[in-house]
Amino acid sequence: MIEAIIFDLDGVICSTDQYHYKAWKELADELDIPFDEKDNEKLRGVSRMESLDIILEKSSKKYLNDEKQAFAEKKNIIYQQYLNQMTVEDLPKEVMDTLQKLRNNGLKLAIGSSSKNTLLILKQIGLENFFDAISDGTMITYSKPHPEVFMKAADLLNVNYKHCLVVEDAVAGCIAAKSASMKVAAIASAYGNNVADFHLNCFKDLLIILNTIK
Ligand code: B16
Ligand code: MG
């Protein structure tokens, strides 16, 4: 029996993934490091510093920690410029309608995101007061595929991990959910992977799979 749904944010609730790509691309170009959309797929659900390390793997230079911090900060400034332009229009109607229906069905709803920009993004799309719990990159030590961010969300909701369903667009996030003994529904880039319990063609399909679990 599912009592709570924990949503990944970037790539699930809204499409901030495109802004991550643009901001990392700008930095990579400046550093003369090859980086394309295929490389970007490896960064889904991965923390900011780990993402930078993955990008720098293709660099011939070795950078000091201070330099890496400065690069990450620079990328985040570019990324936040995109986030600041987001509005409630960037929350798809299908997502909002489905969230509302899930809430009306008595489910607890939480966010489980690796992003340290979670509160800013939720504010931009008008969801800052919607969720019953928010677990994000500012609250965790280990990023996905470690399950910490989802365990924290379930703990905040006071729901047993076995009664949680995670919705994820990253394979790293699907692995994280499974290692916390949660059920996981994959969507978008994670669709079809062999870790998830369910695969969503679109967000509202959540309503269908929930009926099959009950
Ligand atoms: P930030 P999610 C993740 O969000 C993104 O998928 C990942 O690409 C990003 O590096 C990470 O957040 C950290 O984001 O730089 O904003 O702290 O998918 O877990 O909601
Ligand atoms: Mg994601």
From TrEMBL:
Q: What is its EC number?
A: 5.4.2.6
| Cofactor mode of binding and number, as noted | Binds 2 magnesium ions per subunit.
Tell me the residue numbers annotated for binding substrate: 8-10, 24, 43-48, 51, 75, 113-117, 144
Which sites bind Mg(2+)? 8, 10, 168-169
A UniProt-annotated Pfam family: Hydrolase
Q: Which cofactor does it need?
A: Mg(2+)
**Gene Ontology MF term list:** beta-phosphoglucomutase activity; magnesium ion binding
What the entry lists under InterPro entries is as follows:
B-phosphoglucomutase_hydrolase, Beta-PGM, Beta-PGM-like, HAD-like_sf, HAD-SF_hydro_IA, HAD_sf, PGP-like_dom2
Keywords on record:
Carbohydrate metabolism, Isomerase, Magnesium, Metal-binding, Phosphoprotein
PANTHER family associated with the record:
6-PHOSPHOGLUCONATE PHOSPHATASE, HEXITOL PHOSPHATASE B
Q: Which NCBIfam families match?
A: bPGM, HAD-SF-IA-v3, PGMB-YQAB-SF
Q: Which family is this sequence assigned to?
A: Belongs to the HAD-like hydrolase superfamily. CbbY/CbbZ/Gph/YieH family.
| Full protein name | Beta-phosphoglucomutase
UniProt organism field: Faecalibacillus intestinalis
Upper lineage is: Bacteria, Bacillati, Bacillota, Erysipelotrichia, Erysipelotrichales
